[in-house]
Design a protein that fits this description.
alpha+beta; 5-stranded mixed β-sheet; 6 helices; 5 strands
């Protein structure tokens, strides 16, 4: 059956991934050598960063037709050139759409369901994020070639999981992504990795290793 984006009557859609987590196979022998090999597979390469930048630009180009002064940032927590053990189950790419606070009011009032009997100041920021994500998802799926996979609207920072297929020409493989609006977690994570790596080059590898371990275990 075709998977539809969430609606007001169906705010939460979750699906079990049928792409199981695969055991990582390492050629090295010994704890230190295995850790070094694994971290080398995790740390994003320059090519991975380029792919994420192109993906963010693709999303931004489409969404500028909906909202004229947005910005879009892309973040990755692994080397996309080496494939992924998680598939769509746990995306390694975050795409964050940034909307200026002074544009929130006009966006809310532009929604048909908000025109009557609702004071913009009473609409919480959480609800605004969900409204924006639904609007952007419609645009990306209907006009941008991305495929809807699932929503997660009950978490603190609501998001949608989409799939950027290889047919877009951005990467030779399909890329699962998490799309969110004004989410601070990916930005804070990237800033933390940058700062700790300045203190100790091993810190970035350790942080990514722990993150991968956590994602592997849900």
């Amino acid at each position: 059956a075709r998977k539809e984006p969430p609606t007001s009557s169906n705010p939460e859609l979750r699906q079990v991934s049928w792409n199981p987590v695969k055991q990582v196979k390492l050629a090295s022998v010994g704890w230190d050598a295995e850790v070094d090999e694994l971290t080398s597979k995790i740390i994003p390469s320059a090519k991975s960063e380029e792919i994420v930048t192109r993906l963010a630009e693709h999303v931004k180009t489409l969404l500028l037709e909906v909202f004229p002064d947005i910005d879009v940032m892309g973040f990755t927590g692994s080397d996309l050139m080496r494939g992924t053990a998680f598939g769509v189950a746990v995306p390694e790419v975050d795409i964050v759409v940034c909307l200026k606070p002074n544009r929130v009011r006009s966006f809310i009032m532009s929604r048909p369901q908000q025109r009557v009997g609702t004071v913009p100041g009473d609409v919480c920021h959480f609800k605004f994020k969900k409204m924006a994500i639904r609007t952007f998802t419609d645009k990306l799926v209907n006009n941008g070639g991305l495929k809807f996979r699932r929503s997660a609207f009950r978490c603190e920072e609501p998001k949608i999981t989409l799939l950027a297929p290889s047919e877009l020409g951005i990467h030779t493989e399909s890329i699962p992504i998490d799309l969110s609006v004004n989410s601070t977690t990916p930005l804070h994570h990237a800033a933390l990795l940058t700062e700790v790596s300045r203190l100790d080059p091993r810190a970035q590898a350790l942080a990514l290793l722990v993150k991968r371990w956590a994602k592997d275990r849900g």
